[in-house]
């Protein structure tokens, strides 16, 4: 075969592939703002930016780092139904972070689930490269679906502030808000563990997994490195409308901070929200303690103070509880960096919470 003939054949093949690609991924898409659908996980609905977890104009006292973290969309998810064969997302980002111990997909990207046989199944995830993140391009999450109506749950970025999230579907397809797929309102305040550090995708935090396991709506306000029982965070939580609180607040503060701040923190929340369960979690074991004697000593001292103060709190206050989750498998191989669990570790955490948390909530009619 001569070179010109070979070139012609290649051109025909490429043209055929292009036609096939266009058929599989329709060009005509419409974009719908996610906040007009069902936005789940909002601890404080009604913020001027619906993707901010706290209104930082209304609430003051945050450090610069905390101010960004409470504006990040960690823990938020959009529930909708569509018969589109393709689902894309387009984002207008504000500030964002790039933690080295968390994937870019989890930090700045998206995680999509579709309900099948009553269970939320993974459907697609992704993130634009740093070079293309701010260009406002569509990110394809799933394509070549069957065109029937599907119930979808899309988790937003963990470590990014977003000003607009638009879900793109075929122009001829339907897209509608899904009736809220979770029950009740359980506030969750905590550290990098609650924020989701170490996960591969936003839907793999222990908070997100616990929602899917129990059907209860978990409202996450995780702030990596900054869950230290601060009075101004207590005032934020006291203003939330919730049925219960779950706290992960003993991994960041020093023993002295725990002694000084825990009881006033409880008082502030109880005064505003009397009669709801306040469930505190003992901090999980960090694998970095295994051979580092200094780290082991510091962690042991912190946990001992937390145990002592929580024993006092449980005696002093009704509706205050202390439980012990676990993110550690028998082989101790679920750590990303000696501090944070990986996806499997967070799965173990969520499962261990389910068995301890649900009986407490049931006493308050939360099922």
TrEMBL record:
GO MF annotation terms: hydrolase activity, acting on ester bonds
Annotated signal sequence range: 1-23
Keywords per UniProt: Signal
SGNH hydrolase-type esterase N-terminal domain boundaries: 33-175
InterPro entries: GxDLY, SGNH_hydro, SGNH_hydro_sf
Domain SGNH hydrolase-type esterase stretches: 185-352
Pfam assignment, any one: Lipase_GDSL_3
Record carries keyword Metal-binding: no
Protein name: Lipase
Organism: Sodaliphilus pleomorphus
């Amino acid at each position: 075969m001569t070179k010109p003939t070979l070139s012609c054949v290649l051109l025909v093949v490429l043209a055929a592939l292009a036609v096939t690609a266009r058929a599989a991924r329709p060009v005509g898409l419409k974009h719908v703002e996610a906040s007009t659908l069902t936005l789940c996980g909002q601890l404080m609905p009604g913020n001027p930016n619906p993707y901010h977890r706290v209104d930082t104009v209304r609430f003051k006292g945050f450090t610069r780092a905390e101010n960004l973290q409470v504006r990040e969309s960690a823990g938020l998810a959009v529930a909708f139904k569509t018969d589109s064969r393709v689902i894309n997302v387009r984002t207008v980002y504000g500030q964002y972070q790039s933690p080295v111990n968390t994937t870019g997909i989890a930090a700045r990207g998206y995680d999509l689930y579709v309900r099948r046989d009553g269970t939320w199944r993974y459907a697609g995830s992704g993130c634009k490269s740093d070079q293309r993140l701010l260009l406002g391009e569509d990110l394809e999450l799933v394509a070549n679906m069957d065109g029937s109506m599907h119930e979808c749950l899309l988790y937003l970025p963990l470590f990014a502030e977003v000003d607009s999230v638009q879900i793109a579907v075929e122009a001829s397809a339907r897209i509608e808000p899904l009736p809220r797929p979770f029950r009740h309102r359980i506030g969750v305040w905590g550290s990098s563990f609650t924020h989701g550090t170490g996960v591969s995708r936003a839907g793999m935090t222990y908070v997100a997994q616990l929602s899917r396991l129990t059907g209860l709506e978990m409202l996450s306000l995780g702030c990596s490195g900054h869950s230290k029982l601060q009075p101004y965070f207590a005032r934020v939580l006291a203003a939330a409308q919730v049925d219960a609180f779950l706290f992960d607040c003993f991994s960041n503060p020093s023993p002295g901070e725990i002694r000084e701040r825990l009881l006033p923190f409880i008082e502030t929340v109880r005064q505003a929200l009397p009669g709801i369960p306040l469930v505190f979690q003992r901090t999980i074991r960090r694998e970095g303690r295994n051979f580092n004697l200094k780290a082991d000593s510091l962690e042991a001292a912190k946990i001992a103070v937390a145990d002592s103060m929580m024993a006092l709190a449980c005696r002093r206050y009704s509706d205050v509880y202390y439980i012990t989750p676990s993110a550690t498998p028998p082989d101790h191989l679920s750590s990303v960096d000696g501090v944070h669990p990986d996806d499997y570790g967070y799965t173990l955490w969520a499962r261990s919470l389910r068995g301890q948390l649900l009986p407490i909530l049931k006493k308050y009619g939360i099922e």
